[in-house]
Amino acid sequence: MADQWQEAYDFAVQVARAAGAVIRKAGECEIKVQTKSCTVDLVTQTDERVEKIIIGSLKEQFGEGTHCFIGEESVAKGEPCILTDKPTWIIDPVDGTTNFVHGFPFVAVSIAFAVNKELEFGVIYSCLEDKMYKARKGRGAFCDDEPIQVSDVKDIHKSIIISEHGTDRDKQKVKKIFSTMQKILCIPVHGLRGSGTAATNMCLVASGATEAFFEIGIHCWDIAAGAVIVKEAGGVLLDVDGGPFDLMSRRMISANNMVIAERIIKEIEIFDSVRDDAPIQKK
Ligand SMILES: Nc1ncnc2c1ncn2[C@@H]1O[C@H](CO)[C@@H](O)[C@H]1OP(=O)(O)O
Ligand SMILES: [Mg+2]
């Protein structure tokens, strides 16, 4: 059925915009911060509240039994993070929580929808910039309803590359991250950047502002919506070892084309991270 998920797609855009308004308002008040896995892994009442609003609205619209939900804060509370063939919403209510806490102006709501383990659409609302990015499989990518496209740069020396440091402060991992950054910077490339939100970084690749974004340590809810948006904007998604993109693997490179992706992959020093769909006791 060609237009089966159009209603869900349109509804996701509405929900993301409403969620972004809640985040903007919350940012005007005092933000109470708590920590999750470590002292730099932050969470606020807004993350939890917004996830409840998003999942509540989707359940009300589409029924509780037929659709599944993977949300960052629900998983943090012990809900499973397994992608099945059922229609599944993958949600990051506040991507860039550290930015939100500090008033650094890139914070995004990320909502993706998968069926039969395949991503059907993604919506990312960069709520402080008030930019709505969206894409549906086979239908192109858009920012505020204008079509977007990846950059056509093939020469790595003319590129800007994005990566992030994540929240793990294990010395060996940090060393590898910085060693990778140093090697890429000295290729040389025009510059290295990082907005602090994986979702926004992927929108920057999709809209041609940067050639690639890669990270090890991210979660499926950080990149699911962005994956559709990058792909529909003409870009590519790969594992950081050059293999196929795996949503649950905690690592990925998104790029404008294979030439740039493969050149960056040569420099990435890979470190282990536990898969999102690993059994909970092993995390
Ligand atoms: N352990 C981790 N390692 C790397 N990135 C992480 C991470 N946990 C979350 N991220 C996400 O990666 C980006 C910054 O590194 C953000 O999008 C952040 O999402 P968050 O703000 O929703 O936690
Ligand atoms: Mg996130």
From TrEMBL:
<feature type="binding site">
    <location>
        <position position="92"/>
    </location>
    <ligand>
        <name>Mg(2+)</name>
    </ligand>
</feature>
<keyword id="KW-0460">Magnesium</keyword>
<feature type="binding site">
    <location>
        <position position="95"/>
    </location>
    <ligand>
        <name>Mg(2+)</name>
    </ligand>
</feature>
<keyword id="KW-0479">Metal-binding</keyword>
<dbReference type="InterPro" id="IPR020552">
    <property type="entry name" value="Inositol_monoPase_Li-sen"/>
</dbReference>
<feature type="binding site">
    <location>
        <position position="222"/>
    </location>
    <ligand>
        <name>Mg(2+)</name>
    </ligand>
</feature>
<dbReference type="GO" id="GO:0006020">
    <property type="term" value="P:inositol metabolic process"/>
</dbReference>
<dbReference type="InterPro" id="IPR000760">
    <property type="entry name" value="Inositol_monophosphatase-like"/>
</dbReference>
<dbReference type="GO" id="GO:0046854">
    <property type="term" value="P:phosphatidylinositol phosphate biosynthetic process"/>
</dbReference>
<comment type="similarity">
    <text>Belongs to the inositol monophosphatase superfamily.</text>
</comment>
<dbReference type="Pfam" id="PF00459">
    <property type="entry name" value="Inositol_P"/>
</dbReference>
<comment type="pathway">
    <text>Polyol metabolism; myo-inositol biosynthesis; myo-inositol from D-glucose 6-phosphate: step 2/2.</text>
</comment>
<dbReference type="InterPro" id="IPR020550">
    <property type="entry name" value="Inositol_monophosphatase_CS"/>
</dbReference>
<dbReference type="GO" id="GO:0046872">
    <property type="term" value="F:metal ion binding"/>
</dbReference>
<dbReference type="InterPro" id="IPR033942">
    <property type="entry name" value="IMPase"/>
</dbReference>
<keyword id="KW-0378">Hydrolase</keyword>
<comment type="subunit">
    <text>Homodimer.</text>
</comment>
<protein>
    <recommendedName>
        <fullName>Inositol-1-monophosphatase</fullName>
        <ecNumber>3.1.3.25</ecNumber>
    </recommendedName>
</protein>
<dbReference type="GO" id="GO:0008934">
    <property type="term" value="F:inositol monophosphate 1-phosphatase activity"/>
</dbReference>
<feature type="binding site">
    <location>
        <position position="72"/>
    </location>
    <ligand>
        <name>Mg(2+)</name>
    </ligand>
</feature>
<dbReference type="InterPro" id="IPR020583">
    <property type="entry name" value="Inositol_monoP_metal-BS"/>
</dbReference>
<keyword id="KW-0963">Cytoplasm</keyword>
<dbReference type="GO" id="GO:0007165">
    <property type="term" value="P:signal transduction"/>
</dbReference>
<keyword id="KW-0452">Lithium</keyword>
<dbReference type="GO" id="GO:0005737">
    <property type="term" value="C:cytoplasm"/>
</dbReference>
